Amino acid sequence: MRILVVGGGGREHALCWALSASPLCDALFCAPGNAGIADVAKCVSVGAEDIDGLLKFCREEKIDFVVVGPEAPLVAGLADRLKDAGIKVFGPSAEAAQLEGSKGFMKDLLARHNVPTAWYGRFTDAAKAKDFIKEKGAPIVVKADGLAAGKGVILCQSVDEACAAIDSIMTDKAFGDAGNEVVVEEFLDGEEASFFAIVDGKHALPLVAAQDHKAVGEGDTGPNTGGMGAYSPAPVVDATMQDRIMKEIILPTVQGMAAEGMPFTGVLFAGLMISDAGPKTLEFNVRFGDPECQVLMARLKSDLLPALIAAADGQLENFDLRWREETAIVVVMAANGYPGTPEKGTVIGGLEAASKIENVTVFHAGTKADTREGKPVIVANGGRVLGVTATGKSVTEAQARAYQAVDAIDWPGGFCRRDIGWRAIAREKNG
After folding, report:
1. Pairing state of beta strands 42-43 and 182-186?
2. Which CATH class is domain 327-429?
C-alpha cells in the first residue's frame, strides 16, 4: 500500500515509525513531516491543513490510505473530502470531529447519553458566565469551546481567577475564535489518565492507557502545555477500570454518535479523571494524543496498519492487538520560551548518541534540517521539539534510560521536566 500520514509532530513521527515496519507498506509519505520523520518516510511540503493540496498529492501519487494525525484538518473536513474522492482514510468526519472541535457539543452529547462527566454550563455571554461562576463557587474550570492546541483549559482556584479567565478568553481573545464560547465546569478531584480506543463507527477496540503530564514545570506546576511527557501503562487503569471505561464511557459515546447519525471512525481519546467514584470524562479528542502516541507505539507488538484499515472498513468487531508488558516513557524536550513564544533555530546535537542507548527512540516534533557553516544540522522549529522515548521492565528503569538519553543530547536551547512518571515511580517505591 501507498500510505500518507498527515502532520509533522512527534505523534506523526511515532505513527510513521510504526507504519514503516508493516509488511503491507510499500511507500510511506508524510505531509509536511519533520527532520526525524525523513528517516522513515518521504516528507512532502504540503501543510496538514492544506486540504486541496493534500487531495492533489493523493491523486498524483496514487495514495491508497491516509492516516490523519492532528485534529485541525479533521475538524475542517479532510476525512470527508478524501472519502468523497474515493480515498480510504483513518479519521472521523467533520461532524464526528466536533467531539474535539467543540467542548460544548461534546458535553451536550455526554449529557444526552448519560456518560459520566462534570456538571457544566455553556456561554457566549461573558457576564452570564461570570454569574454562573459566582453561583457555583471555586475551584472551577474554564475552557475555550474550540481548538486551542491543548492550552484552552484554565483550572481556577478562586472566583476572581475564574472571572479573569473569562475576560482573557472571551474579551482579550487569548485563544482567538476558539474562545467565542466557553464551557464552565466542575473541578474534579482524582488522578488523570488518557484512554484510547480505535473505533469503526459501531465497534471499539480498546488500546492501552497512558498518563500525560500537562503542566510545564516539575511537580505539575506552571501553565498547561500540549504535554511535557507521558508513560504507559497507567497503574490507575487496571483491567477492572478498563472494563468500566469501555462500558460507561467509550461504548455509550460510540453508540450515541451512531444513533444521532454521525458515526465515529478513527481513534477516540478520552481524557479521564479517576477517583473512588469511578471514571469521569474530562474531554474527548478525535486523534492519538501527543506525546501519548509515542509510548503507545513503543509498546505495540502487533502491526498497526491492519488495525487502522479495519477501522476504516468497519471491520473491527473481531480484531485484537497485542502489547508489550514493558513500561514506555517519553520525556518531551521543549524550546526555551515554551509554552509562550519558543526560541527557534537553535542547533540540537547528540541525537545519534542518544538514539544508540538501548531501548531508546528519539521522536522528532518541532525540528527541521538546516546547514550551519557548511555542515548539515538539526535545528529547533517549534515549541515541543523532541520526544525522548524509552522502554524498561519498570517505570523506574524506563525513566532512568530516558533521562540518560536526554543527557546525551546537546541542546542548550531546550529544557524538559525531570519528573516524568513520578506518580508511578512513587507507587513502585511503596510496593
Report:
1. unpaired
2. alpha beta
* CA pair distance 65, 15, nearest whole angstrom: 13
pLDDT along the chain (431 residues), means of 10: 97 98 98 97 97 98 98 97 98 97 95 96 94 95 86 90 94 90 94 96 96 92 91 94 98 97 98 95 95 98 97 94 97 96 97 97 97 96 97 96 98 97 88 69
Q: Which amino acid is at 204?
A: A
Alpha-carbon separation of residue 383 from 32, 57, 133, 344, 380 (angstroms): 17, 28, 33, 8, 8
From residue 411, how far is each of 46, 108, 180, 346, 415 by CA, in Å? Answer: 28, 45, 39, 8, 8
Amino acid at the residue 324: R
- Range list for CATH 3.30.1490.20 in the chain: 125-180
Q: Which residues pair with 349 in a beta bridge?
A: 410
Q: Chain centroid to CA 356: how far?
A: 27
pLDDT in tens, 195-211: 999 999 999 999 999 99
Return the pLDDT at 148: 80
Measured between alpha carbons, how far is 388 from 365 in angstroms, rounded to an integer? Answer: 10
Question: Which residue ranges does the chain devote to CATH 3.90.600.10?
Answer: 327-429
**Which residues, in sequence order, are CB contacts of 47 under 8 Å at separation 6+?**
31, 32, 53
Residues of the chain with CATH 3.30.470.20: 189-312
The CATH class of the 189-312 domain is alpha beta
Contact in structure between 98 and 263 (CB atoms under 8 Å): no
What's the length of the chain? 431
In CATH, the architecture of 2-91 is 3-Layer(aba) Sandwich (3.40)
CATH class of 125-180: alpha beta
